[in-house]
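Q: I'm writing up a methods section and want to include an example of the input and output format. Could you take the sequence below and give the corresponding predicted structure tokens, formatted cleanly so I can copy it straight into the document?
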Amino acid sequence: MVVSPPSFGVSGTIYRRPSSNLRFCIDHFLSREVSVSARSALNPFRIGLTCLGLAGLPMALPAASLLPDMGNSVDEVLSPTEEARLGEEVLHQLRAMNALLDDPLLDRYLQSLGQRLVSQSTAAGDPFLFFAVRDSRINAFALPGGYVGVNTGLIIQTRNESELAGVLAHEVSHVSQRHIARRMADSRQANILTGAAMVAAILAGAGSGNPQMVQGAVSAGMAATVQNAISFTLQNEKEADRIGMRLLADAGFDPNGMPSFFELMAQQSRFYETAYSDFLRTHPLSTERISEATDRARMVAAPKTRSAPSRAYLLMRARARALTGDDLIASQTAFRTEIDRSQGTALEAARYGLGLTLLRQGQHPAAVNEFTALVRDHPEIPEYRQALGEAQQANGQNDAVLATYRTALNLFPGDSVLSLGYARALLLQGKAQDAYTQLEALSATPEVTGR
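A: Here is the clean output for your methods example:
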């Protein structure tokens, strides 16, 4: 049975102890990759790649498993249950290192977007968890067991929801095709073959008395293993593109979102190499791959009518910018410029981003004014009411914040983000019993997002 992922943003999850194989993999990653500085050294995708590679080493496997397996080698190397445990453990370590943004609104949006894609895949019945990672670099990654992380830098860089959905569809396809488990199984076989090549080389060298022959043969064996890994990675990427494209179209998104984002990455990387290096290293792009994705998008049925920009996407993109920007003055200036130049939902998103930036700057009265105006103009949007409650709390308006949350929950009963905000406000005002009652009611109420 697959271990169900924990709900996003909720602490206290019971993490099951993984097997020795998985434990070795995780410990090795943590000791090698994040010992110097958890924040600066962290590259989330390396977690998946490191675990993927290390678990294939002979020392990480029982002795019996070193024999070639002509049966279902994938499940023997990493079963679905172990995949779930490994992904869960890595997520736990990411949270412990404060690498996750842990923003309920962004996580809820990513979960909703991701589930639209998962529902069209062969893994439709499996649990998936999508979450935002506090990282300005442009990247996304899939962990074993259905855990998909999305860097805030990637959310910000996309130009429309189909581009973001295209990246998620690609990662969902990695999970549904069990690429990590397959890579581990392939690595195991490669290590066996490399070992055999080395033994043969040593024997041949001993007979000839030529040490250069030994060195050359060993190098050839290792080179073959490296080339096999590269070929396997490229094969996986193309397979994820092909399957992801179909998921994108079946879920109602524009399939051109995938190749258009690939093209953007390729173009921008020429000028901003550092910001895009992670994406290109973990998702190697080539002219051939971009061309194949473009041709495939033409063959896949696109939506017949072009839909208006998603309000949820625009708001969450603005939220990611506001919550993670290092230069708050520059962020405020950028949002004000967009307000002057935008209209419709784009204008709303710019106002929302400005209010969040003002809140981070400590300009609480100004933030309250901005969100009050948004609630007045768009009373049907729960995100504006939640932001108003946060601003009122920061501004010390105790009575007003409780009234804001009560009104919001009357309009959107069961909304988890509003309920958590209300409970937090009650706790901060010393009303612990009322907060407990609110959370208890939330646990028994189905999630309602207000859309």
